[in-house]
Amino acid sequence: AKHKQLMSSENQTYQVLHVDLGERSYPISIGEELLNNTGLLTQQIKGKRIVVVTNTVVAPLYLAALTARLTNAGKVCSAVILPDGEEHKIWNSLMMIFDHLLEQKCDRKTTLLALGGGVIGDMTGFAAATYMRGVPFVQVPTTLLSQVDSSVGGKTGINHPLGKNMIGAFYQPQAVIADISSLKTLPDKELSAGLAEVIKHGAIIDPVFFDWLEQSMPRLRARDPQALSHAVIRSCEIKADVVRQDEREGGLRAILNFGHTFGHAIESGLGYGAWLHGEAVGCGMVMAAELSCRLGYIDDVVKTRIRKLVEAAGLPVVAPDLGEQRWLELMEVDKKNEGGQIKFILLKPLGTAFITEAPKDVLLETISYCISPTP
Ligand code: NAD
Ligand code: MG
């Protein structure tokens, strides 16, 4: 995302980032009150026929106002309201979207608009990729996680009983509209989960952004709109830049998995849903920093800064005791592994990430220390 523009309409200024993916390029608009900005909505949402896909939690908050604005702007709107939750990111919900599209005789020009968090975004994107072999798709992410992470990069999909995100497609949206004001209604725990991915972006790419996060964490948790806007903009720029260089996950994109090898082990070890993904990633980054430090890639000071920032974001920093053997097993099944060796994203130094393997003894020391850290 190289070109960033400051735009202004209806007394609101907002930023537009251009994600540069050749003919699949698209703009991400980030700012306050964008869902109330008819000018921006009509400019960014091109088609006439819109089907909004949302869920039972988000619909009562934002659906009526959004459809009223779109209708006033001359669009023809209808909505599919799905049950809320990761457990509904499944085939059945996808079918509910297709049922609606076919019943309403929606054609190839119908635009699907995802209004909600990452679950809605991933499912709607996959529905858009496959309905009539592809229809236009716009994302309106309403969680911090979806604004900084899942709405950038073009991964869409659903879960299978045998694995998370196992069925899907790469499919880029026509536009992303991230309204910072929608974060006001987000539960604290969900805000913290989104902050984990924000911290990750600083840790792997941008030490200046990491410094800024250390200074700004209280403002972010108080939902200061200016601080949140900056965090979302910088995160989208960083992720878009990585994705631009590696759209289909051939190599570089793997650095976005910093904290995720440990994090995935926590999620599946405790049972999905026990910790939020962002919570597991927060703790996973503390563990990856510990491993980086034990292997001599970063010093104690950096390691401590990472733990303090994760803690300040309201995220867990002490690892669950799953048992040594179980920890190893869980990390070995991580889907990013090739040839049985566990791959880790480590830091050297702060702001630079690389992929490597780790000696088993150091790994076990890291896990046992992170389960019961001593000052
Ligand atoms: P989510 O979509 O489940 O949203 C979290 C909760 O917040 C839900 O209950 C939701 O209904 C509610 N909510 C959403 N917006 C709200 C608002 N403004 N106010 C109040 N409540 C609101 O979870 P998420 O963290 O946004 O996304 C997680 C999903 O994203 C996972 O399925 C994950 O696999 C996926 N993901 C995808 C990518 C990708 O690249 N496609 C990247 C990261 C995560
Ligand atoms: Mg993640």
Automatic annotation (TrEMBL):
Q: Where is the signal peptide?
A: none
Which keywords has UniProt assigned to this entry? Amino-acid biosynthesis, Aromatic amino acid biosynthesis, ATP-binding, Cobalt, Cytoplasm, Kinase, Lyase, Magnesium, Metal-binding, Multifunctional enzyme, NAD, Nucleotide-binding, Transferase, Zinc
Binding-site list for Zn(2+)? E197, H260, H277
Principal location class: cytoplasm
Free-text cofactor note? Binds 1 Mg(2+) ion per subunit.
The cofactor required is: Mg(2+); Co(2+); Zn(2+); NAD(+)
Q: Which GO terms describe its molecular function?
A: 3-dehydroquinate synthase activity; ATP binding; magnesium ion binding; shikimate kinase activity
Q: Which GO biological-process labels does this protein carry?
A: amino acid biosynthetic process; aromatic amino acid family biosynthetic process; chorismate biosynthetic process
Q: In which pathway does it act?
A: Metabolic intermediate biosynthesis; chorismate biosynthesis; chorismate from D-erythrose 4-phosphate and phosphoenolpyruvate: step 2/7; Metabolic intermediate biosynthesis; chorismate biosynthesis; chorismate from D-erythrose 4-phosphate and phosphoenolpyruvate: step 5/7
Catalytic activity reads:
7-phospho-2-dehydro-3-deoxy-D-arabino-heptonate = 3-dehydroquinate + phosphate; shikimate + ATP = 3-phosphoshikimate + ADP + H(+)
Q: What is its EC number?
A: 2.7.1.71, 4.2.3.4
Record-annotated 3-dehydroquinate synthase C-terminal domain positions = 194-337
Q: How does it assemble?
A: Monomer.
Q: What is its biological role? A: Catalyzes the specific phosphorylation of the 3-hydroxyl group of shikimic acid using ATP as a cosubstrate. Catalyzes the conversion of 3-deoxy-D-arabino-heptulosonate 7-phosphate (DAHP) to dehydroquinate (DHQ).
Q: What is this protein called?
A: Multifunctional fusion protein
Q: Which organism is it from?
A: Undibacterium oligocarboniphilum
In the complete protein, the residues contained here run 167 to 541 of 541
